[in-house]
Amino acid sequence: RRRVSPEAFAYIAGGAGRETTIGENRRALDRYKILPRMLRDVSGCDTSLSLFGNTLNSPVFTCPIGVLDLFHPQADLAVAKAASTVGVPMTFSNQASVSMEECASAMGDGVRWFQLYWSKSDELVASLVKRAEDCGCRAILVTLDTTMLGWRVRDLDLAYLPFLAGRGIAQYVTDPVFQELLKDPEPELEPPKITLTSLSNLYQMSKRYPGSTLENMKTRRAVDAVRKFIAIYSRASLSWKNLTFLRQHTKLPIVLKGILAPDDALKALDHGVDGIYVSNHGGRQVDGAVGALDALAEVARVVKNKVPVLFDSGVRGGADIFKALCLGAKAVGIGRPFAYALAVDGERGVAELLQNYQADLRLTMGLSGVRSLSELNPDCLLPKSS
Fold first, then answer.
1. 46-55, 155-164, 186-195: which has the minimum mean pLDDT?
2. What are the structural domains, with CATH classification, of the chain?
3. Rounded distance, CA 322 to CA 317, Å?
4. Model's pTM, two decimal places?
5. 271 part of the active site
6. Span 97-153, pLDDT tens digits
């Protein structure tokens, strides 16, 4: 908290409304109790798995988090290097501070996925997906729960939205279709007022936009980019029928992120998706929503291993990962903790945190009498309390 601005901390730590969903995520994880078993040979503990055609050394991956330059100057690039070093898949955020191509270059053969926010422009969606394919991403994770931003009180109290300062739009300003869209700029609602704050914002936007900062300030390219992004970034009308378009534009596995209801999981299977991602966006979208782990248990029950199920929201250590795997997750995402580690010590901090989580999981498995991921099932847990 001491390493970042109050606005940055509020943005990453905050949730929707009274933040009851953040608390419910933890309560759901805490309701399940691990039941260790004794006198089993755990001298060898195997955490490897196969997922979307890749062999991974553990079931841990980094969740997509946008605007990482709030926490460290190297932002996504530091996370990409750390994930590649540790052997953990990184999910490139649609709202990244560094382009997917630059991050992919830093990862070498490291496994990466791309998180897609479905824009109002289908042409932009197709372009982002093609770029993800071209830079070696192995899956497309379509975020469904953010067709509009949640009621985030901490951000509202601070009157803060990082995108308005040109943060978190690197995937857009480096995209050829988005550059074409900028030829039709969004209209100004009212003439801008010249203040120290507005000049500072203009400078910061122009510095982040590709090219000369001075030229960007003169031409207002960066301002136009922010306005265009705000106008098209997400589509409230998104529906099941849009998935056909995505399937026509990529051969990569399509994973739906934000599934909480069993009925939606069944619909996803009917639409031929390649994976289901149980998440409530870390409690950032809907206040009073179901705890993600409670949703996981029900979703996994109806999916019946037909496709891999991914999970995030509230995970804070190896025991949490263990519980999610027991309840049907194939892999578990780490979110806020790696952003905090990034703020504390950059690439090295992220790598250390990921290694710690992997080691914690292996120890939890061994001390619970579990030798491989295939042995994890609901019988390893005591039923949740009423």
1. 186-195
2. 6-159+233-382 (3.20.20.70), 176-232 (no CATH)
3. 9
4. 0.95
5. no
6. 999 999 999 999 999 999 999 999 999 999 999 999 999 999 999 999 999 999 999
